[in-house]
Amino acid sequence: MHDDRFHDHCGVVGLYGAAEELGRARRASDAAGSRAARLAYLGLYALQHRGQESAGIVSSDGLDLYAGKGMGLVEEVFSAEVLARLVGDAAIGHTRYSTAGDTSLTNAQPIVIDCNKGKLALAHNGNLTNAAEWRRKLEHRGSIFQTTSDTEVIVHLIARSAARNLSGAIGDALNQVEGAYSLVLLTREELYAIRDPRGFRPLALGKLGGTWIVASETCAFDLLGAEYVREVEPGEMVRISRAGVESIRFAPPKPHQYCIFEHVYFARPDSLVFGRPVNQSREQLGRLLAEEHPADADIVVPVPDSGVPAAIGYAHESHIPFCMGLIRNHYIGRTFIEPVQDIRDFGVRLKLNPVRGLLEGKRVVLVDDSIVRGTTSRKIVRMVREAGAREVHMRISCPPTVSPCYYGIDTPTREELIAAVKTVEGIREFLGADSLGYLSLASLRRAVEDTEKRFCTSCYTGVYPTELVQLEVARQQTEPRAAVVTREG
Ligand code: SF4
User: Which of 109, 155, 168, 254 could cross-link with 94 by S-S, CB 3.0 to 4.6 Å?
Assistant: First the structure.
């Protein structure tokens, strides 16, 4: 069952120099793996929102790499026994959201290979836009792929590089692929943290005492008690080894394309993403939304959890009281049984419940961060009305999503995106709301202080910064029934 939300594909984490602290007595709980494995586990725990289908950690003790992977949530995959096998003072980890029909353990990361460049493990957040083409070429030349993930293309290209050292081979490989990648790569002796030249997906560098840490979001540093040092820059490869930290530019600079939707919805509000506090962006989105789309209303109600900061901003700006008129159940599992077939909107009711006493007789501004297909939003509007709201004014803290993402976010096809096929008035009618207002693109850029156009906004414009995708999208628009671009991993 899809849940009518956008999903990020992955979160990554990496640790280097996480030796056990000298003189520190090991607690009983420490029986579960080395310090690096335990820190990677906790880092992944903090990044769980970026992917819930599979999780993996690979560690290194300087002699070999040790892998533990499985399907499910981080806490389900890593038992004490699994963690105990992950020895050494360096580790990388990955948590993955997989697309429909692609929920196999084979595609769980990190990918580990033993090639002519030595043994290495790779974990990837993002999506390569020319992976299918490379895969065909490499298979033609005799490469045998173990997964259907686009990430494996990078590994094969590294193995085939004629460069004399690993950083050169990685650079060679990455200069042949297109698209979005924030990578952590572990060898027996080194950790690499790498971001594509456009910087689509985030990757931050932190430090905990003598341990270097990289993570998709800084909320992982907070859980570990680590300090934020800086972003891994677009087009930068950070190599961490016994010799220290080295910054290598592996590609010519390209115009930056930070994913703006990380600030709208994906990232945790307590994270710094692209060096900017997410919560600050979201509140500002809400303030600007109130400026652009005021409503004559009694209360502002967020669609929890992700709509909360924007609703707070909306309430501040409009001086309309903020109310938690919908409560989210945080404890739903991934499978459930419908007790009675005819309970209307059971799936949504399982997640959200209206507070009748707050909503009854009120004119409600309902704030959410996005509308995908519109089916869930329609059910929520109906739920708020059935709880007694007199009017429902839907406000969305970003522009209409009119085009799919090809850079690491799982989105439906263009035809399934309601904003691609209906006008705003058509969407309002479909939702059954009294009014509907989306934030403008200009205000979205303003909310993240994007004065230099460093953010990607392609899912709102249908204009893509990478050539292959732009060509494919243009072709689809002239031939609407043509096959879509293959998106893997
Ligand atoms: S297309 Fe949208 S979701 Fe994808 S990277 Fe660009 S802004 Fe982010």
Answer: 109
